[in-house]
Amino acid sequence: MLSFGVGQSVPPAGLVSGAVRSHFCGMSSSRTPVVYIPHGGGPWPFVELPVFPRAEVDELREFLTGLPAELGARPRALLVVSAHWEESVPTVMSSPQPPIFYDYYGFPPESYEITWPAPGDPALAERVRGLLGEAGFQTAADPERGFDHGTFVPLKLMYPDADLPTVQLSLKTGLEPAEHLALGRALAPLRDEGVLIIGSGMSFHNLRRFFDRGGRAVSVAFDAWLREAATAEPEQRDRLLEAWPTAPSARRAHPREEHLLPLMVVAGAAGADRGRIAWSGLFGDARITAVACG
Fold first, then answer.
1. Structurally, what CATH architecture does the domain formed by 20-293 represent?
2. 242: part of which helix (H) or strand (E)?
3. Domain map of the chain by residue range?
4. 78 forms bridges with which residues in the sheet?
5. Predicted TM-score of the model (pTM)
6. Which of 10, 42, 147, 202 is the most exposed place for a label (fewest CB within 10 A)?
């Protein structure tokens, strides 16, 4: 059994095959953008997994590999909110040299040899805690936590040299959309400090449907809503995201919402910046989408 861990035009609503990629000119100001990316399933780009067709793997790999160039100026550091870490209070990794946390099982041995030795950034971790504290959040630091596959898998494609200081931030248990939107708003000043905020999840995450190849219709219905919500005027966007369980096929697309919540943090940090669809394609025969703001 495989386990993936615990834890510029918008395509028309009927689009169900092929990938759509938005080419944009990077930052329109000195602020870094914010992005919500799909991190795929397990060690998918580095190990052959029959459940994911090669053409779909190659399309997502190409998007993630090319994304840094699309985003513009190189950031000084990365802050990643991964779907695969939840704590009772928002918690940051504080190690200066985080290990790899192989939070999946049942894969070939080479899946547990993947490396991505990016340095941590204890000062950035403290800055994150300070901003969240000013916004009324209790926080914690974890000096032992390593990069889970929501971080090391996509970032090994995006930044293969592993030379950017990187801090991972947990979700907050309870997975309340409003709390995660507020968390993102609190982190927005980091965008003026050269920090790229990345939400790493999946816009469709129903493992049963991935494995039985039954996710296409459900994912298309939910994705049409998500693309409209994510590209709406910012105040409307946040209202729609907060009410995501009312979306078409919401609970069939996300039986549990941890893979959607990183988008809430990204939307909060986006502030008045309107979202755009950075990429939309198939993965595991399900429609998934990436969103960029700024």
1. 3-Layer(aba) Sandwich (3.40)
2. helix 234-242
3. 20-293
4. 166, 196
5. 0.91
6. 10
